[in-house]
């Protein structure tokens, strides 16, 4: 059976990808890093989301050359902070410390208003397979950085990312609401549209 390895151990992310791919009725065995016997070291030292994604897929391809491999990289960028946190989003103020990361963004934007608080969530997805050019897509959501954390569904920068069309922060959205408009959801939508033609290459 054809295997797809998703370069994550996040069960929620794997489920979201599985649900997106289900629209194509692919007979694939979908695995996460948790299902693998050997997981190579992946050093994410790229300067862009796309570079980091490619590092993930190519590292796994060395060990699993016959499988399809998908990876994503996501983050928050704030123009007024010269694109920070960017590729350092997960470790902006410490290793995966969401509270500290949010506090650092809020502190750096203290006293700033209006357009200076504009921000964007970005996801870049890459899918590779033997003999094929990488399929790379991205998804974006524009928002505004709040002055304090708002919302109970705390994940990453969600409590400080205000989404104007719904007049809520991402942390005030249900999982279903967020999936409909999220940057990863938008990237997955593009991937699903492009996948049938890519597979025929």
From TrEMBL:
Cofactor comment text: Binds 1 Mg(2+) ion per subunit.
Pfam family, one: Ham1p_like
Top-rank taxon: Bacteria
Cofactor(s) the protein requires to work: Mg(2+)
InterPro entries per record: dITP/XTP_pyrophosphatase (IPR020922), ITPase-like_fam (IPR029001), RdgB/HAM1 (IPR002637)
Protein name in UniProt: dITP/XTP pyrophosphatase
Residues forming the catalytic site: 73 (proton acceptor)
Binding site for substrate: 8-13, 74, 155-158, 178, 183-184
Enzyme Commission number(s): 3.6.1.66
Reactions it catalyzes: XTP + H2O = XMP + diphosphate + H(+); dITP + H2O = dIMP + diphosphate + H(+); ITP + H2O = IMP + diphosphate + H(+)
UniProt keyword list: Hydrolase, Magnesium, Metal-binding, Nucleotide metabolism, Nucleotide-binding
Function: Pyrophosphatase that catalyzes the hydrolysis of nucleoside triphosphates to their monophosphate derivatives, with a high preference for the non-canonical purine nucleotides XTP (xanthosine triphosphate), dITP (deoxyinosine triphosphate) and ITP. Seems to function as a house-cleaning enzyme that removes non-canonical purine nucleotides from the nucleotide pool, thus preventing their incorporation into DNA/RNA and avoiding chromosomal lesions.
UniProt-annotated binding residues for Mg(2+): 73
Subunit structure: Homodimer.
Family statement: Belongs to the HAM1 NTPase family.
Enzyme class, first EC level, given as a word: hydrolase
Organism: Fructobacillus americanaquae
